[in-house]
Model the fold of this input.
Amino acid sequence: TTCVGTAVGVREDAVMTAWGKFDDAVTAVLTARKTALVSAWSLTDASARRSAVKTAWATAKKDRKTAASTYKTERKAAWSAFKTAVKACGGGSDASEAEDEKDSGTSVDL
Done:
């Protein structure tokens, strides 16, 4: 039905928006990591260099996890809103069939 189709469109737009934010965040993480590593490798003191390299990798890992967590939360919200919208469409067979759609539940699936 048109109602379910509209709900699907809204859900998919929200998932695409969340993915775009995730992509932008990961790009920022990689850019910051590159800058930090290049800077670290310019240090002449070996101890300071090791520390800076370790910090660059640890920061990138933490920031990447944050980006993935944010994406997962936004994706789940899109699916939750979809399920609510489908229920509001009424109890026809199309709505029932749409309620059977499942989110994959993994953090970076489409």
Q: What stands out?
A: The longest helix spans residues 46-88. Helices lie at 2-41, 46-88, 93-99. The radius of gyration is 21 Å.
